[in-house]
Amino acid sequence: MLEPVVATFMTRSPVTVTLDAPFKQVACALLVSDASAVPVLTEDGRPIGVITESDLLANLEYHGGIDPPPLLGGATARRRRRKAAAHTARELMSSPVDTIGVNAPISAAVCRLTRPGAPPLCVLDDEQRLAGLLTKRDLIAIYRRPDADIAANVRAAVTTDRSRPARTPADLTVQVENGVVSLAGQLTYRSQVQHAIMAASRVAGAVSVHSSLRYDIDDLLVTGF
């Protein structure tokens, strides 16, 4: 099954800043950017950090670093107070930067971006230079994939089972409407039915999977799995 890669959904040519960019320049960069963060680049174009909206808002929260952090705020509050007093991108940014390859499967990015508090991913080309930025908002664009593309990926996925002889595509009916996948037909083994449902659910852009697949042999009853 061909899975879309990060390059398909990333924001290309994102707004960036240098290490010595002053606070106001960083704020303006965020305002003109379509993303919720701006990468900080070295002179040779390599990302060294990232600055989010939250990093900038620490300045408002602690009034430029004048206010003390809460007594029970812990390390997070102390770190935000330090950022509140920042004057340059170097002091504002979070580092090391989270990166991913331009040709990495989109599923790898999903696993990382959906973690609580995960920052945007800087997308690197083969020379480890910035090629784009991938945000949670970019991932939502997965659901813009045409139903026909999703259906083609599902057909490729559900007719391939390395552990059992594959049935032909004629044994299956795949329909996709508004991202909802419907599977129908007859397979040899119950395990193939489960494989088909699982594989279809992992296709990028699939909202849900409805299955009316049938099977000839309950191999799971025999194996116990």
Please tell me about this protein's structure.
With 225 residues, the chain is α/β, with parallel strands linked by helices. It folds into 2 domains: 6-142, Roll (CBS-domain), CATH 3.10.580; 145-223, Histidine-containing Protein, Chain: A, CATH 3.30.1340. The protein contains 10 helices and 10 strands. The chain has helices at 6-9, 23-32, 53-61, 74-84, 89-92, 106-113, 136-140, 147-158, 190-201, 219-223; strands at residues 11-12, 17-18, 37-41, 47-52, 99-101, 121-124, 130-134, 172-177, 180-189, 208-217. The mean pLDDT is 88.
Largest sheet: 4 strands, mixed
Which stretches are low in confidence, meaning pLDDT under 50 for 5 or more residues running?
none
- The value of Rg in angstroms is 23 Å
Q: What is the class of the largest domain in the CATH system?
A: Alpha Beta
Shape, please?
A: elongated
Per CATH, what is the topology of the largest domain? CBS-domain
Helical/strand content category: alpha/beta
Q: Estimate the mean pLDDT confidence.
A: 88
Instruction: Give me the CATH architecture of the largest domain, please.
Output: Roll
Short précis:
This protein has helices at 6-9, 23-32, 53-61, 74-84, 89-92, 106-113, 136-140, 147-158, 190-201, 219-223, and strands spanning 11-12, 17-18, 37-41, 47-52, 99-101, 121-124, 130-134, 172-177, 180-189, 208-217. It has 225 residues and is an alpha/beta fold.
